[in-house]
Amino acid sequence: MKRTAITCALVLTALCLPLFSGCQRTRAHTMSAYTVLEEPTYSSKGKLSRSCLDAGCDYTETKELRASAGLIYTESDGRIYVAGKGGCTDSVIYISSETQDQKKVYGIGASAFLDDKQITAVIVGKDVREIGSGAFAGCEALESVTLPDSAATIGSECFLSCEALASVRLPASLSAIPDNCFCGCISLIDVSFPVGLETIGYSAFNRCSSLNAAVFPETLQTVGSFAFCDCTSLTFCSFPTGLTSLSPYSFSGSGLKSALLPPTLEKLGSCAFYRCRSLTDVFLPKEVRTVEAPEGMSPFYESSDQLTVRTDALEKSPGWDEGFDILFIPDAGNGETVRVRVLYKQQKN
Ligand SMILES: [Zn+2]
Asked: What is the CATH number of domain 193-349?
């Protein structure tokens, strides 16, 4: 009973708030990207829904809209691409897979919406195959992006410096997140990695300082240089079996607390965890063939001095660079596991 009364009071308060001018606004919900419930056309409205991402909040909303009209197009090799906003004034933009004169839209052209200041949400219609390089780069008001599963290719710098971008729904068919794709997306908190994802490119999530977790699919093989550099809120990351390479500086300056690396990992790049000040626990399997540490720049260079690297190797493998010192300490609790403490060598001048 009491709970119902409180709920009623809250609902009433919420209803009344807009009636009083100058009242304090409640904090905005952190909304997910839109899900398409019914595909819109130019003549009839479709339906979208989205929900709040904040823990414990079950706020959802639906939106009805028509496909955005007035966009301009270009043709290349017989394929039609969206080239720009043209006369369209929508802030929530729905890009149909057909032009208004019913020609099939293959993709969104390079830099099509570059530096647009008005767009807050983008939904790309089903069947669109390609999103060009820099298509939405610098869209400072853009908060959410929904891409169709048909979009197998996304160009580099696609969402570079979209500083308000919080939530992205990536295509299920995507196998590569390209270079600089979400670089500088400082508000990005919600991104689910497609199940077939194989590579994450150079600097792809560099400076995504709101991103707090990354759960990768089993298909992921390589993570590029600087991919998660300075993701200061990134405390958890899964490193799936199948992963073969972590490039230099891939997680440098991130908030990672632990890194349990898989036995499939062949190469651990120098400075991969450089300046990870919260990193205290790493598991480095004996199968890892190459651990780079040129001139003392080990994968753990300038990380926490509380860092313990555990391994099941009995000694340093030949491919583990001599540029860093490790100390093997047998683990009393488990005969097969050896505890390793990393000691740092200063960088040579
Ligand atoms: Zn909420």
From this structure: 3.80.10.10
Distance 52 CA to ligand 1 centre (A): 5
Find the 57 Cα to ligand 1 centroid distance in Å. 5
Enumerate the CATH 3.80.10.10 domain ranges in the chain, comma separated: 28-171, 193-349
3-class state of residue 17 by DSSP: helix
- CA 61 to ligand 1 centroid distance, Å: 11
Cα 111 to ligand 1 centroid, rounded to whole Å: 33
Asked if 263 and 289 count as a contact pair (C-beta separation under 8 A), the reply is no
How much is the pTM?
A: 0.87
Cβ neighbours of 110 (radius 10 Å):
18
In terms of DSSP bridges, do strands 130-131 and 153-154 run parallel, antiparallel, or are they unpaired?
Answer: parallel
Quick one: pLDDT at residue 309?
A: 82
Confidence of residue 329 (pLDDT cuts 50, 70, 90): low
Distance (Å) from CA 165 to ligand 1 centroid: 17
Contacts with 145 (C-beta within 8 Å, 6 or more apart), sequence order:
33, 121, 122, 136, 159, 165, 167, 168, 169
pLDDT higher than 70, residue 343: no
For the ranges 11-25, 137-151, 181-195, the lowest mean pLDDT is seen at 11-25
State the pLDDT at residue 23: 41
Residue type, 92: V
Separation of CA 54 and ligand 1 centre (Å):
5
Model confidence at 340, pLDDT cuts 50, 70, 90, reads low
State in Å: Cα 9 to ligand 1 middle.
18
Distance between Cα 161 and ligand 1 center (Å): 25
The architecture (CATH level 2) of 28-171 comes to: Alpha-Beta Horseshoe (3.80)
